[in-house]
Specification:
Layout: E1 22-25, H1 28-37, E2 49-57, H2 61-74, E3 80-81, E4 88-91, E5 99-103, H3 109-124, E6 136-142, E7 147-155, H4 161-164
Parallel strand pairs: 5-6
Antiparallel strand pairs: 1-4, 2-7, 3-4, 6-7
Length: about 170
């Protein structure tokens, strides 16, 4: 009895690897979100996205960078492109988000506060380039001592609020 498909991969497991892409249909909500992003839509030109900030201590940028890559690898919607040319999205075989690290440890508290506020202002109003697969933006700001601020922006084309709060062990 066969337990896999023609390629030998177990059923129910997504096949992905470097260079692997697959088209999937958009849900009605994704279609609406994508339409609302368009500048030509009435009241459009905005992205439905969620922006978070987390304070941390002794965050290792290299380990965080690896975790962001593993997160995208584990969750296909976080490596999906929404080109806008039809009612499909493209699952990409490789993660697209990169961790951006800004070291402000040598700056005074006032400069750190201004820099964090500037990142918040920019990220909370941005429209990620979802056509190219940019649905996640993760940045780490290193502050005084071992303190840090993690900035995360996720487009709701790729994740919905209830799903973001769901955590299952790897």
């Amino acid at each position: 009895m066969a337990t896999g498909n023609r390629s030998g991969a177990p059923r129910g497991r997504e096949e992905h690897g470097p260079g692997t892409v697959r088209k999937v249909p958009l849900t009605p909500v994704q279609s609406a979100y994508r339409l609302g992003r368009e500048d030509t839509a009435p009241l459009g030109g905005v992205a439905c996205h969620m922006y978070f900030e987390f304070d941390g201590t002794a965050v290792d940028p290299a380990r965080l960078r690896d975790a962001v890559t593993r997160l995208q690898d584990r969750h296909p919607p976080l490596r999906t492109a929404f080109p806008g040319d039809d009612e499909t999205a493209t699952l990409l075989g490789v993660p697209t988000a990169r961790l951006l690290v800004r070291d402000l440890t040598a700056s005074d508290a006032e400069e750190q506060a201004r820099a964090v506020a500037a990142v918040r202002e920019q990220m909370s109003g941005q429209r990620l380039d979802v056509a190219r697969g940019q649905v996640l933006d993760v940045r780490l700001t290193l502050l005084s001592g071992t303190d840090s601020r993690l900035h995360v922006d996720v487009d709701l084309l790729a994740a919905d609020p209830p799903s973001i709060g769901t955590c299952r062990p790897c």
